[in-house]
Write a structure and sequence with these properties.
The complex is a heterodimer of chains A (317) and B (431).
Chain A: H1 13-30, E1 44-49, H2 54-66, E2 70-75, H3 87-96, E3 101-106, H4 111-118, E4 122-128, H5 134-148, E5 164-168, H6 175-186, E6 190-194, E7 210-212, H7 215-219, E8 224-227, H8 243-250, H9 254-257, E9 265-267, H10 280-283, H11 290-313
Chain B: E1 5-12, E2 17-23, E3 26-31, E4 40-43, E5 48-51, E6 53-58, H1 71-80, E7 83-88, H2 99-112, E8 116-119, H3 135-140, E9 147-148, H4 158-167, E10 174-177, E11 190-191, H5 194-199, E12 203-204, H6 206-223, E13 227-229, H7 235-246, E14 251-255, H8 257-261, H9 283-295, E15 300-301, H10 310-313, H11 330-339, H12 346-360, E16 378-382, E17 388-389, E18 408-409, E19 412-418, E20 421-425, E21 428-429
Parallel strand pairs in B: 1-4, 1-5, 6-7, 7-8, 9-10, 10-13, 11-12, 13-14, 14-15
Antiparallel strand pairs in B: 1-2, 2-3, 5-16, 16-19, 17-18, 19-20, 20-21
Helix pairs in contact in B: 1-2, 4-6, 6-7, 7-9
Classes of the chains: A alpha/beta (317), B alpha/beta (431).
Amino acid sequence: MKRHLISAGDLSRDDAVLILDTAAELASVAGRPIRKLPTLRGMTVVNLFYEDSTRTRTSFEAAAKRLSADVINFSAKGSSVAKGESLKDTALTLEAMGADAIVIRHPASGAPRRLANWITGRVVNAGDGTHEHPTQALLDAFTIRERLTSPESDQRGQGLDGIRVTIVGDVLHSRVARSNVLLLTTLGAEVTVVAPPTLMPHAIGTWPCKASYDLDAELRKADVVMMLRVQQERMTAAYFPTVREYRRRYGLDTDRMALLPEHAIVMHPGPMNRGVEIAAEVADSPRSTIVAQVANGVTVRMAVLYLMLGGAAEGTE
Amino acid sequence: MTEEWLIKGASITGGPATDIHVRDGIIASVAPGLEVPGARVIDAVGLIALPGLVDLHTHLREPGREDAETVTTGTRAAALGGYTAVHAMANTEPVADTAGVVEQVWRLGKQAGYVDVRPVGAVTVGLAGKQLAELGALADSAARVRVFSDDGFCVADPLLMRRALEYVKAFDGVIAQHAQEPRLTEGAQLNEGEMSSRLGLSGWPAAAEEAIIARDCLLAAHVGAVLHVCHVSTAGSVEIIRWAKSKGWRVTAEVTPHHLLLTDDLAEEYDTVFKVNPPLRTQADVDALRQGLADGTIDAVATDHAPHPVEAKETEWHAAANGMTGLETALRVVQLAMVDTGLLDWAGVADRMSVRPAGIGRVQGHGQPIEPGVPANLTLYDQAAPKETVDPRTHASKSRNSPFAGMELPGRVHATFLRGTATVLDGKVTR
């Protein structure tokens, strides 16, 4: 594995499968009376959050704590230059405090890559602007593997070969979509993105996936449908006329859910706009993996921290 | 004290070796085998002699951002790059929208003495795109402004652009447009394409440049005015300018060295040294720009030298300043991109980096053929110098944001003469 986890594209198939396998083993810890492992004792993980994201921060915090790492939550509002300290100075400060890894969430695409230039510790991207969110993709891959591949005992070492995943919504601005397209295809899945043309990246033809504007046609052949959150402010920039129209054309309601093959699952990275991209009945249906995704988030992030820092703890870079 | 020089064995724009005698700031004679007792002799065998280079697009940053560059450091960098005249862009603090500011910049240039500094006047007050600056006052000032630009911003309002194009006809001025449709580029960070979609950076579509260029060509034709297009960056822009010129319209254009060599995939690691406006484009654009410069569709190479202090670049990509330095590397990049590729000969380089830019900027005494009687604005260039890695720490510019850092470039500026006075000798400034 590379030194930092910044893009899902940084992961080879072997890396990704190793993370999923490790997560599966760590998941068993969650079932024990004492849920902590001593692996990262004495190490410090900093959650450096420039955006409010209680769910992601809490997930990383829980993951680090279950591995016995010390966790520092550092929330910095506002970006550099205009006010306050620059990202570089913040990074140097945190490193001086002994951060072994920095988990960063930032509104600017590429901020984790910049951060990695300035520190010697590890960097984990917890979502950067409209770029990537690789641990979300890992937890999604974990969830898909858990639900759709053969029984648990045989899952070790497996990818997602031949599984058809349809990702629906604001692909243009979605870091979840970017990371998932890269990771899921690395693992052998066939990914199709569906969006109104305005929310499809201009160069979608260069992505390793198919693209479509027709949700109904894609749903009939999907094993997995992943709904993306749509930001209401996209409407003011004329990406689509009204929320009502968006829901009609790209929302997943019960009628559309009925088009899915029987085994297919419905995913959402959260937080959801119930009644916009996903109807409440769909979100709460047995097909929905939304709650499982949250639980898997902790174990997958444990696996990432374990693999990135556990090796370092034993002095084997 | 006037200097007297005998330049021995130089190849004038790639021609046969000859001697050049410089006296009283003028080229006294040009012939092989000259003997001039008392003149300082420069062994120029193997060197190319070019008319002193003229830059249409330089950010000297003074007044206001002396932490990034001053007129002195910027013009010293220019001389080291082989330049004898530069156009200082108007986006200073305060903006060069009054006679006072342009005269200050012009005077600072004179005092520094490395190159002739030709201030560019703002088109609109404060570069705000709302109200015309007092263009006549700028033209009549001691700085004799002839080029007007809101560079950094586009004069987007079509009516205001039409009026500006018309108005400066009274004093033979030219509007140099930074072509960028503002609505199409809100928050834009990188050329819209494969890289921007992968990196999650808002796209800067080629169409946003091309739409403005097309509009401005039509306006210039309609009012019979002169339009100059700054830093053309896309293949489509070259096509539009080629079309406008084919109609006989008075449109000129420039391209930067970085757009002739670099592409947007360099942004892969979010290294902000590659952040520039207009953004780096694709290889297809680079190829079209080179072709356009070779066939004369693009008239000039202009550096868009844009120095920034370290802290303006040591940030997230979004927060980083746009721009790169270029004066000290321009000629070497042009050799690599245009000469060594066989697209342009040295006469062509002289044309695109001196003759035509001097004409566009109405610069007196520059861009003249190297022959007796003309002001001795000269550059001696060693095209065969061993390739050397660019190290911005050695640059005379106050700033270090060179996108060519770490690249091997051919060539070396050996000497530069401003009206017969050596500003650079043996690759070093004379003072």
